[in-house]
């Protein structure tokens, strides 16, 4: 996200491309060839959401198990049905990558009197607690909340990003700027060069468009959408310099906030709702204090622990629906005060805090 704060812009020192020049296919290919599979989607995600018996009954490899063959893991409530909504075809695109089946869980009995709720994780695959938090919610809390809400839970939108610990997809595109219906984000503040660089084929952002298509078919009006993310030290060390290099721009420096925060929607801030989520997470982990000039990641604080973005204009996942209440969680996993488990529990607390508020206040 670009900061509107005036500060000294940093020229890109990224090892790919030339400063000030937008990447072409050659630079994107150089970038892709540097990416390495570092962990297994099958072992760390699919093994926790699919029934091991249904995997072994068909093939030893869960990646080759298709939806029609798989059942949900027995630890996940039978009030939810497993839906295989797409397979991201990356097998031939990147060495070591696979074709990645992606799944969502949906309330089996849809009750018109209950609020409809969307929970998304792993839009940014490197943000581990977003994925593991959605899975933990599925396995420990979803059964209870199915009594009070119609749930759709998507634990990991970007499996290749999960395996390569990456913000972008293999086409060097950020899925969380790609929840749009045409080929360019609607960011009017963008420079022409940047807008050009951001122009993408919808088919090149399968992570976003597979889910948009699946939800479009379901035609659900949501009361709540919560999208699970992290802000990490690698954002400053790798991903922001890479973004500036790709788009031939510079970037403003800011400190990574030490603690949890939320990103609401500028057009529907829902202050009381955001406050309820912050309070729920505050019982588990520390909330980020405002940084310099009362900002977090360069954006003015709207309220304690909350900044707002124009989510639809920026093509963010949180702007994908017209939900009355929407928020994006930002867990800080690199804080000396937290560990992996605390980050997962913070995500679960954000989900349950949001659900409790919406169930009570609809
Ligand atoms: Zn993120």
UniProtKB/TrEMBL annotation:
Coiled-coil region(s): none
Domain of life: Bacteria
GO BP term (any one): proteolysis
Cofactor(s) needed for function: Zn(2+)
CDD domains, sorted: M14_REP34-like (cd06231)
Keywords for the protein's UniProt record, in alphabetical order: Carboxypeptidase, Hydrolase, Metal-binding, Protease, Zinc
InterPro entries: AstE_AspA_cat, Peptidase_M14
UniProt GO molecular function: hydrolase activity, acting on ester bonds; metallocarboxypeptidase activity; zinc ion binding
Stretches assigned to the Peptidase M14 domain: 65-362
Entry's family note: Belongs to the peptidase M14 family.
Protein name per its UniProtKB record: Zinc carboxypeptidase-related protein
């Amino acid at each position: 996200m670009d900061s509107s704060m005036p500060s000294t812009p940093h020229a890109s020192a990224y090892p790919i491309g030339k400063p000030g020049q937008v990447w072409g296919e050659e630079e994107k290919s150089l970038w892709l060839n540097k990416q390495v599979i570092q962990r297994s989607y099958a072992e760390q995600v699919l093994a926790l959401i699919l029934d091991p018996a249904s995997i072994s009954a068909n093939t030893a490899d869960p990646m080759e198990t298709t939806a029609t063959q798989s059942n949900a893991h027995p630890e996940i409530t039978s009030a939810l049905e497993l839906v295989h909504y797409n397979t991201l075809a990356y097998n031939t695109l990147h060495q070591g990558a696979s074709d990645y089946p992606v799944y969502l869980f949906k309330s089996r009995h849809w009750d018109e009197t209950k609020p409809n709720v969307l929970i998304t994780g792993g839009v940014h695959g490197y943000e581990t607690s977003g994925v593991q938090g959605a899975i933990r919610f599925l396995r420990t809390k979803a059964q209870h909340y199915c009594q009070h809400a119609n749930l759709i839970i998507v634990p990991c939108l970007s499996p290749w990003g999960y395996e390569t610990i990456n913000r972008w997809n293999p086409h060097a595109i950020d899925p969380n700027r790609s929840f749009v219906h045409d080929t360019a984000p609607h960011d009017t503040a963008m420079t022409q060069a940047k807008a050009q660089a951001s122009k993408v084929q919808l088919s090149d952002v399968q992570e976003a468009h597979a889910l948009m298509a699946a939800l479009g078919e379901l035609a659900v009006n949501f009361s709540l959408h919560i999208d699970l993310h992290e802000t990490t030290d690698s954002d400053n060390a790798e991903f922001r310099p890479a973004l500036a290099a790709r788009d031939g721009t510079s970037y403003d420096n800011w400190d990574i906030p030490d603690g949890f925060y939320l990103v609401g929607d500028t057009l529907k801030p829902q202050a009381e709702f955001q406050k309820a989520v912050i309070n729920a997470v505050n019982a588990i982990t520390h909330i980020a204090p405002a940084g310099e000039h009362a900002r977090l990641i360069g954006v003015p604080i709207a309220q304690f622990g909350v900044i707002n973005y124009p989510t639809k204009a920026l093509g963010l996942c949180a702007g994908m629906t017209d939900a009355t209440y929407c928020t994006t969680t930002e867990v800080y996993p690199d804080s000396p005060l937290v560990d992996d488990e605390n980050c997962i529990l913070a995500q679960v607390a954000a989900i349950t805090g949001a659900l409790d508020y919406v169930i009570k206040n609809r």
